[in-house]
Amino acid sequence: MKVTLIYLDQLSAMHPTGVLYLATYLHEKGFSVDIIGIDPKNKNAKAEFISEIEKSKPDMVGISLVTRNADRIGRITEVIKQMFPKCFIVCGGPHPTVLPELTLKQNPLLDCVAIGEGEIIMLELSQRIKDKRGISDVKGIAFQKQGKVYFTEPQPYIQNLDILPFPNRALLRIDITPVLRSPYLPLPPPQLDLMAVRGCPYKCSFCYSTASKIFGSKIRSRTPENVIAELKLLKKNYNIKGAQIGADTFTATRKWALRFCDLLIQEKLNIRWYVNARIDNVDEDILKMMKKAGCEVITLAIESGSDRIRNDVLNKKVSREQISRAFELANKVGILTQANIMVGSPTETIEDLEDSIKLIDLLEPDFLNSSYSSILPGTTLWEKYSDKLHFNSWSELDIEVPKQILHTIQVERLAEARAYLETNYARYGKHSLKKFLTKSVFRNIMLYRWLCYLKVRPQNILGDIYLFSKVALRSKAKSYEEYLTTRKDIATHSVF
Questions:
Q1: Average pLDDT of every residue of the chain
Q2: Complete domains list, the chain, with CATH
């Protein structure tokens, strides 16, 4: 019985972690499993996929799908069914979880969709296909029969995540060396990521309830001992120096986070790591413990500098004072900060946009991740605003494609705001260069990164230095207002 799992995305500095956990779980249960990655931006993607799927000769295919790639599924299933007519195809992930019926209707060659957490569902489907039994009693799926869509009972979430084996990265059909050597700033290479926590109790309108339908609204954590054991294995197998600890909000369960840090200190693994955390559940004591355990970067999601947009529209429920305090404490203990910010949220005005820029200028985060606000299926924003959206394909529902944004500001002005933020605060922005020269914590981390590069790929040091120096050629504007005076004046309008 051969199972092939497909993910659609450009291979980044991190592996497709979710697919890896799923593949390894099936492999440990006795199934032959491989993984095929499809890079939608690769002009030879179809030919390469045909070659890879021919090698696999799968009895069953599982496709991991996010909304921006939903238009591609029809072409993929056509290729598979033409080559292997009896192959069973299931599609899972965020998109089919929140739009199961529509996914089946738009892709009639799919045999079913998986709704929610995938490991148990895929195991039970694999067992049914292997034994040539029906699938109607498998929990957590939807399937189409004679034009009608049927739903089975929901699949319960895995309560003990320690039952999941550590990902077997040998299942990837790639040379993982380039991945190990292409880390995000400023963690040292080699670096990899892992899943530590699933589930999120918060109800941010751009994420909820999609996230809760996949992994639930209750936090479920692997035991700290189990996560440390995986880190030790990654250290042994790949000699990692950096790691991304996967959790929607690392500090939500304080006792768990402190235990994890304590164990990591005891093990003396010398791994630098990065996490996401919420503004309102960090304090000085836990940040000090994280720093002592090797945490170098923490992402704090601001989303908007406007209290109205952040709390009334996006439902973050954090104050400007809490935001300032969180960044102040991280700076105090020596953890670098990355701010997440979105532009173009529904009803956002020029004044709201400028509030965001002023707040970022005030906080001066070490790094910044900016995006266009995107209204995705299944979210609270989708329920409220989807009837006002205008888009021609699922690919337009993407944080990097502003065409579908429901905004009161012209896209050109939003692009200018992002350009200003990225120029100044992105990983190779002006403030990164400034902080390298003036902030010892930042400089020491970067120097350690380059020391590690000497052992694996020295030329990447020159790449970092080139990108840092390149920002000196960008706009000299010291403020957003000054920046705009050098640009074409763009009027605003309303689409409501």
A1: 88
A2: 2-151 (3.40.50.280), 175-485 (3.20.20.70)
